[in-house]
Amino acid sequence: MSRIRMLAMVLGLYCHGAITYADCPQSDPIVIAHRGASGYLPEHTLAAFKLAIQMGADYVEPDLVITKDGEFVVRHDHYLSKTTDIADKPEFSNRRRDLDGRSDWFSEDFTLAEIKTLRARQPFRGRSREHDGKHPIPRFQDVIELVKSESERLGKTVGIYPETKIPGYFESLGFDVDDMLIAMLKKNGLNKSNSKVFIQSFEPEILRSLRSRVNVPLVQLVSLDSSQVKEDGSYQSSISLDELSEYADGVGAAKWLLVNQQGKANDFVSRAKRLGLFIHSWTFREDAFPEELFSSGGEELKFFLKMGIDGYFTDFPDIGVRAKEWCRRQS
Ligand code: G3P
Ligand code: CA
């Protein structure tokens, strides 16, 4: 730590707005490629994960849903019409159904063999669709194998940061999600204390259940509870830091929890750190950032890095790597 920074901390000056020197408290934050390099290629495809690794991401993030025959496949949602061409497949037209107010096709109604016939589509408005229809839907196992082979090729270990999506719902269908996840980790030699893996979920139950069964860090995802605004104008998190610190190692926080409604940094990061939690924040996008506050997504990222976050999910890993390099230059 530099003398200036140490002095500033000792004097209690370390808070956003009070410091005048450019700084990055966490000199080696991790770049997590959110659904792969999803800003460039259709999300959750092997091509998007490979590009993210080429761009220098430290971790790649696959979201996991489950097929009828019990395979983890990599999708953000269990409904399939948003990110695949399933709606154009006449052979599946009669498999559309209503669930929770949505008329769609759902991963749990399709075998892996059927899912393999689908091709990914760009779901994000404004992004190129030139790669639509080219890339299949990978299994979690395919992503693990890609990460391993790319790690060997590059001579560095790339990490993997799976998110189990709606595990409680899949449990209600009879899938033993935590057992499935543990089996995947063990099969691939990834349940070791030095494995470069984080497991994340929005649902606390599965993290509590995994707590004594895995050797890798657990991350509780939290979003805004917009119904509760605190005195300083910040939103309450969907799960309190005190509560999640009982079973999670880190918090994966929506970035707007770290600022109040006026965009001023609040005490979320320092409270997390005091509880011994690391903090990874989401989601940083070069093509979707608050233009009233920042001149680019990279500048937005620097603003959050100055608060001391330990990592960040980004759709643009190249921009994320640049911000990390900026951090290194500050320390
Ligand atoms: O997992 C971190 C972040 O990805 C959470 O949001 O909806 O993109 O999975 P989502
Ligand atoms: Ca996710």
Describe the structure.
There is one protein chain. The chain has 331 residues and is of the alpha/beta class. Helix content is 28%, strand content 18%. It is built from 11 helices and 15 strands. The chain has helices at 3-10, 46-54, 112-115, 140-154, 167-172, 177-187, 204-210, 241-244, 268-274, 297-305, 317-330; strands at 30-34, 59-61, 63-66, 72-74, 97-99, 102-104, 159-160, 163-164, 199-201, 218-222, 224-229, 235-237, 250-254, 278-284, 311-314. The strands form 4 sheets. It has an 8-stranded parallel sheet with strand order 7-2-1-15-14-13-10-9. Helix 10 (297-305) links the parallel strand 14 and strand 15. The termini are close together. The model is unreliable at 1-21 (pLDDT under 50). The structure holds SN-glycerol-3-phosphate and calcium ion. Residues 61, 63, 163 line the site of calcium ion. SN-glycerol-3-phosphate binds next to strand 14.
Mean pLDDT: 93
Major sheet: arrangement of strands: 7-2-1-15-14-13-10-9
Shape: globular
- From the alpha-carbon coordinates, what is the Rg to the nearest angstrom? 20 Å
Strand percentage lies at: 15-25%
| Helix run count | 11
Number of strands: 15
Structural class: alpha/beta
Please tag this protein with its features.
single chain, 331 residues, alpha/beta, 3-stranded mixed β-sheet, globular, binds SN-glycerol-3-phosphate, binds calcium ion
